[in-house]
Amino acid sequence: MSMRKIYLISDTHFNHANIIKYCNRPFSNVEEMNKTLIKNWNNVVRDKDIVYFLGDLILSKNKAKKARELLELLNGEIVFIRGNHDKFGEKFRVIEYNGYKFMLIHNPDSSYTLNFDGWIIHGHHHANHLDEYPFINPKRKSINVSVEVINYKPVSLDLIVKLIEKGKVVRTINDL
């Protein structure tokens, strides 16, 4: 039997038209963006996999109802960490994997991260501050999994571990 994989992703902002302009996303409209994000997610994640979603799932009217409908379409067991636009989810979670300690949190500048000695996996900054918050930042021990940085699909924790072991800055997943 194959192992469950662990994936991470943040800041999908489903249904949020302005995010396309604001973050320079390569979509012409919300429908295209939503469809692509769902397709990318389901091409990567299988039903038994775990996805840590690090906040800001959806922005729309009837958000709770729309979020439930959306989640029906996405593969995997999804664990929610609350983003600044969310009303649900844990504030953060600490996990251990392959000998590393990771704090999963939406905003890396949160006071919860202050005395944490492991790696911080976060979203929130999108691709707007890549010098400070690239995909992999060994100096800060931070990992940015905002969708713009990871090419609009969930990224595996196995890949993240491989990259942090190399000890190099990786601006976006497209630089690999």
Question: What does it look like?
Answer:
The structure is a single chain. This protein is α/β, with parallel strands linked by helices and about 180 residues long. It has one domain: Metallo-dependent phosphatases (Purple Acid Phosphatase, chain A, domain 2), CATH 3.60.21.10. The protein is about 25% helix and about 20% strand. The chain has a 5-stranded mixed beta sheet, covered by helices on one side. It has a 4-stranded mixed beta sheet with strand order 3-2-1-9. It is globular, with a radius of gyration of 15 Å. It starts with 5 loop residues before the first strand and ends in a 10-residue tail after the last helix. One of its GO terms (molecular function) is hydrolase activity. InterPro entries: Calcineurin-like_PHP_ApaH, Metallo-depent_PP-like. It holds the Pfam family Metallophos.
Task: Give descriptors for this structure.
20% strand, Purple Acid Phosphatase, chain A, domain 2, 4-stranded mixed beta sheet, alpha/beta, 176 residues
CATH topology name: Purple Acid Phosphatase, chain A, domain 2
Elements, N to C (H/E): EHHEHEEEEEEEH
The CATH homologous superfamily is termed Metallo-dependent phosphatases
Q: Work out the helicity level.
A: 10-25%
